[in-house]
Amino acid sequence: MNDTFEDHCWRDIIPPDVIELYQHYKRDLYIGPRAALVAIDLYELAYQGGAKPVAEVAKDYPSSCGIHAWNAIAPAQKLFAAARAAGLPVFFTTTETRTAAKPGAVRATNRRMPQSQRGPDVYAIRPEFAPQPGETVIYKQRASGFFGTPLIAHLTQLNIDTVIICGESTSGCVRATTVDGYSYGFHMVMAEEACFDRSPISHKVNLFDLHHKYADVMTVADIASRLEGRMQAEAAQ
Amino acid sequence: MNDTFEDHCWRDIIPPDVIELYQHYKRDLYIGPRAALVAIDLYELAYQGGAKPVAEVAKDYPSSCGIHAWNAIAPAQKLFAAARAAGLPVFFTTTETRTAAKPGAVRATNRRMPQSQRGPDVYAIRPEFAPQPGETVIYKQRASGFFGTPLIAHLTQLNIDTVIICGESTSGCVRATTVDGYSYGFHMVMAEEACFDRSPISHKVNLFDLHHKYADVMTVADIASRLEGRMQAEAAQ
Amino acid sequence: MNDTFEDHCWRDIIPPDVIELYQHYKRDLYIGPRAALVAIDLYELAYQGGAKPVAEVAKDYPSSCGIHAWNAIAPAQKLFAAARAAGLPVFFTTTETRTAAKPGAVRATNRRMPQSQRGPDVYAIRPEFAPQPGETVIYKQRASGFFGTPLIAHLTQLNIDTVIICGESTSGCVRATTVDGYSYGFHMVMAEEACFDRSPISHKVNLFDLHHKYADVMTVADIASRLEGRMQAEAAQ
Amino acid sequence: MNDTFEDHCWRDIIPPDVIELYQHYKRDLYIGPRAALVAIDLYELAYQGGAKPVAEVAKDYPSSCGIHAWNAIAPAQKLFAAARAAGLPVFFTTTETRTAAKPGAVRATNRRMPQSQRGPDVYAIRPEFAPQPGETVIYKQRASGFFGTPLIAHLTQLNIDTVIICGESTSGCVRATTVDGYSYGFHMVMAEEACFDRSPISHKVNLFDLHHKYADVMTVADIASRLEGRMQAEAAQ
Question: Rounded CA gap, C227 and C192, in Å?
Answer without folding.
Answer: 16
